[in-house]
Amino acid sequence: MEPEPDARIDHGAPLPPYRQLAGILLARIRRGDWQPNRAIPSEAQLVGEYGIARATVRRAIAVLVDQGALFVVPQRGTFVKPEGE
């Protein structure tokens, strides 16, 4: 079952927080919150929004980069990868 785009992190859940965040971010991408080739919120913004550690945010982003949903541009941020690329 895929997380809802507006879900919160459940620290008591069996799924680790970074996996929960990766699912939430992916759901938000699919909903259209962020357009292809546009930046998602910064790590600091995601830390504040979800109340988790920066390392957890980085790990979630790494999962989505590995899955091909996001790409990182050094010194610029993390961007939504266009479908089919």
From TrEMBL:
<feature type="domain" description="HTH gntR-type">
    <location>
        <begin position="15"/>
        <end position="83"/>
    </location>
</feature>
<keyword id="KW-0805">Transcription regulation</keyword>
<keyword id="KW-0238">DNA-binding</keyword>
<dbReference type="InterPro" id="IPR036390">
    <property type="entry name" value="WH_DNA-bd_sf"/>
</dbReference>
<protein>
    <submittedName>
        <fullName>GntR family transcriptional regulator</fullName>
    </submittedName>
</protein>
<keyword id="KW-0804">Transcription</keyword>
<dbReference type="InterPro" id="IPR036388">
    <property type="entry name" value="WH-like_DNA-bd_sf"/>
</dbReference>
<dbReference type="InterPro" id="IPR000524">
    <property type="entry name" value="Tscrpt_reg_HTH_GntR"/>
</dbReference>
<dbReference type="Pfam" id="PF00392">
    <property type="entry name" value="GntR"/>
</dbReference>
<dbReference type="InterPro" id="IPR050679">
    <property type="entry name" value="Bact_HTH_transcr_reg"/>
</dbReference>
